[in-house]
Amino acid sequence: MDVSVTVGIKGEDNNNDENNVGTGYNNNNVKKARLHSMLAALLDDPILADVPKKPALSDVDTLISLELGSAMRISVLKLDHTSIDVAVMNSATVKDLKLAIKKKVNDMEQSTMGHRHISWKHVWANFSLSYHNEKLLDDNSALQDYGMRNNSQVFSSITFP
């Protein structure tokens, strides 16, 4: 529900309701348009290349924490020898890492191919993550318990029954 508030200036006739109808709505649209154009210009800056195109507050918070040293960047090497980088808090668990990977891959797929459904239940049932030849099987384990720190590299591998 949009609410329009008109502020009067001393010495002006502020009782002319016909001139004030819709002013708040138009003003809000102009502000939103300016904000979106400024955000788009900022996100096109190469320095901010690691910020998602449609960042959530949690994404920005994690990236700020990364700069402050309370988060870490993890590189995930995939089976096709490409890698993706994700940022997680220093206190993150294996589950947090999997969620960050899921979000990053979904964002990349969305931007390149449009809507595409990936069955993450199937992915995690058939593939596992490992760090220094140790599989990260317990979702509740802290990444730091495995010795991970900023700029660590995790490997994706096929899980055999």
TrEMBL record:
<dbReference type="InterPro" id="IPR000626">
    <property type="entry name" value="Ubiquitin-like_dom"/>
</dbReference>
<feature type="region of interest" description="Disordered">
    <location>
        <begin position="1"/>
        <end position="23"/>
    </location>
</feature>
<dbReference type="Pfam" id="PF18036">
    <property type="entry name" value="Ubiquitin_4"/>
</dbReference>
<dbReference type="InterPro" id="IPR039690">
    <property type="entry name" value="SNRNP25"/>
</dbReference>
<protein>
    <recommendedName>
        <fullName>Ubiquitin-like domain-containing protein</fullName>
    </recommendedName>
</protein>
<feature type="domain" description="Ubiquitin-like">
    <location>
        <begin position="72"/>
        <end position="154"/>
    </location>
</feature>
<dbReference type="InterPro" id="IPR029071">
    <property type="entry name" value="Ubiquitin-like_domsf"/>
</dbReference>
<dbReference type="InterPro" id="IPR040610">
    <property type="entry name" value="SNRNP25_ubiquitin"/>
</dbReference>
<dbReference type="GO" id="GO:0000398">
    <property type="term" value="P:mRNA splicing, via spliceosome"/>
</dbReference>
